[in-house]
Each structure stands twice: as structure tokens, then as C-alpha cells.
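Support reply, case 0932

Customer input (verbatim):
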Amino acid sequence: YVISPASGEAKVTLIATGSEVSLAVEAQKKLQDKNIPAKVVSLPCWELFDAQPASYREEVLGKSTLKVAIEAAIG
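Our regenerated output:
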């Protein structure tokens, strides 16, 4: 799930799937340039992720990070 860890303790978790993952990685770099550590999480299936233990989900998403989902609009 974690595609690109933060450099340091993450303040932001960027959540994306598919083609949006590359956008999340670009955003991570821009945040890092502003000294805001962020990690990128690929979450292709919420149902499977939800089936994981709560402790694991918290480890992946972060307990006290700002979470930002990046998703393309669909019809």
C-alpha cells in the first residue's frame, strides 16, 4: 500500500489509485520542497483494505496525518 514513504515523520498521507498515483508522487515532491513530509499510499480496493486489521490500516494511513485522496472523476 505505501508506494513512497515520507522523508521523516509524515504530516500528510496522499491516497491514490491507478493513474493518479503518479500525480500523488509529484505532489509529494512539491510538499517535500516545502519541508512537509508526505507519504503516498496506493489504495486500489477499499473493501480489501478495510478487511485488514485496524492496527495495520492505521500504520498505512497514519494516525495523525492529514489525509488527501486523489481520484479522477468518473461518470
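We compared this against your earlier run and they match. Two observations from our side: The two ends are 26 Å apart (CA to CA). The chain is about 35% helix and 25% strand. Please reopen the case if you see a mismatch on your end.
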